[in-house]
Write a structure and sequence with these properties.
Strand 1 (68-69) and strand 2 (73-74) form a beta hairpin. The protein has one domain (5-394): Ammonium transporter AmtB like domains (Ammonium transporter fold), CATH 1.10.3430. Helix 1 packs antiparallel against helix 7. The protein has helices at residues 5-30, 38-65, 95-113, 123-146, 150-154, 162-180, 196-215, 223-249, 255-269, 278-302, 310-328, 344-375, 382-387, 389-394; strands spanning 68-69, 73-74. It has 400 residues and is mainly alpha-helical. A two-stranded antiparallel sheet has the order 1-2.
């Protein structure tokens, strides 16, 4: 096919927008930790970007999009990007651009996972864990949903990564936090965020980058991309307002809660953005804001230290979004009818796809984390944790 320069330009721009989300995660998380861990938290996102980038071009792309093996994983035929060219080929854009487009999704997922290990992880252990997680958790899920795996064959819908990115990182964070354990003093001392404005900046970068995340998944500069753009913003806005309202009933309406609701709305609309219209996006975002807020309160009540709420926001938001896609998918937007249009099959397929992603992400992450913990240790010493990872791990200090 002939190269479509418009589609190519849009995917290039969208890729750059999604890349911005990885440092956005770093700033979003960095502002919520204590000052002595500020550099460490931001650095983990940059390290995640570099680590996942190299893994992806060497083996990750092939494992995700190589020839299908039993519906579970791709083969290594594309190892080292063998045979990936610059000509349009079967699509309207260069295959090598699609590699980069998918790469930035993998980097965001690994960055989100760092929520579970905030303020206590050994950098060397994170490098090993991150490489194993991207290979054994993310790549299989990407193949299932997008690379010709069983979920794609079944018909489970995931437009831009609700299962692949958000369920994987959110439920992976839940498992990882269980293995690494609580921060020293958690539940006994107040861990005040060091810089809320930095978190707000991170949220702004995420919201901005998410337009590329969802709209770019149309892989064309067309009406579907425009619809995804609009429903993405709508879901984020109503999610932010829903969380704000719920938190207001329990005290003062915090800016941190407001942007957390916005992220919840963005997460939930991600799998649905190419299949639903504006009315559905209002419902999806509102439910996400309330659901994720409730999950955060539950985490706090049980005293579980999944430090920065990747499970509550990304895991549960992604799960709701996947289920909601099966409910609200509309033939007025795309060719797939959801439950409200009479397709029980589509709803069941999405529930199965999301459920399998939850089990895989949680189970495999737990095993990986346990192995790393038993072999090289996951966390720094109590003394290093007391000093802070900025000094202990990086020999640097954030300015006051």
């Amino acid at each position: 096919m002939a190269l479509d320069t418009g589609a190519t330009a849009w995917i290039l721009a969208s890729t750059a927008l999604v890349m911005l989300m990885t440092p956005g995660v770093g700033f979003f998380y960095g502002g919520m930790v204590r000052r002595k861990n500020l550099i460490s938290m931001i650095a983990l996102s940059f390290i995640a970007f570099a680590l996942a980038s190299v893994q992806w071009v060497v083996a990750g792309y092939s494992l995700s999009f190589g020839p299908d093996i039993g519906g579970l994983i791709g083969g290594l035929d594309l190892f080292g990007l063998a045979g990936i060219g610059m000509d349009a080929g079967e699509g309207t854009y260069p295959p090598i651009l699609f590699v980069m487009w998918q790469l930035v999704f993998a980097t965001v997922a690994l960055a989100i996972l760092t929520s579970a290990v905030a303020e206590r992880v050994k950098l060397s252990s994170f490098l090993v864990l991150g490489l194993l997680w991207t290979t054994l958790v993310y790549d299989p899920l990407a193949h299932w949903a997008w690379g010709g795996g069983w979920a794609m064959d079944l018909g489970a819908l995931d437009f831009a990564g609700g299962t692949v990115v958000h369920i994987s990182s959110g439920f992976g964070a839940l498992a990882l936090a269980l293995v690494i354990g609580k921060r020293v003093g958690y539940g006994q001392h107040s861990f005040e965020p060091t810089n809320i404005p930095m978190t707000l900046l991170g949220a702004g970068l995420l919201w901005f980058g998410w337009f590329g995340f969802n709209s770019g998944s149309a892989l064309a500069a067309d009406g579907l991309a425009a619809n995804a753009f609009l429903v993405t913003n709508t879901s984020a806005a109503i999610g932010a307002l829903a969380w704000l309202a719920a938190s207001w009933l329990h005290g003062k309406p915090s800016s941190l809660g407001f942007v957390s609701g916005g992220i919840a709305g963005l997460v939930a609309i991600t799998p649905a953005a190419g299949y639903v219209g504006v009315p559905a996006s209002l419902v999806i975002g509102a439910v996400a804001g309330l659901l994720c807020y409730a999950c955060m309160l539950l985490r706090l009540r049980v005293g579980f230290d999944e430090s920065l709420d990747a499970w509550a926001i990304h895991g549960m938001g992604g799960l709701w979004g996947a289920v909601a896609t099966g409910i609200f998918a509309s033939t007025a937007i795309n060719k797939y009818p959801g439950l409200l249009e009479g397709s029980i099959t589509q709803f069941v397929n999405n529930v199965l796809g999301a459920g399998a992603a939850v089990v895989w992400a949680f189970g495999v992450t737990f095993v990986i984390a346990w192995i790393v913990k038993r072999t090289m240790g996951l966390r720094v010493s109590e003394e290093e944790e007391y000093v802070g990872l900025d000094i202990a791990q990086h020999g640097e200090r954030a300015t006051t």
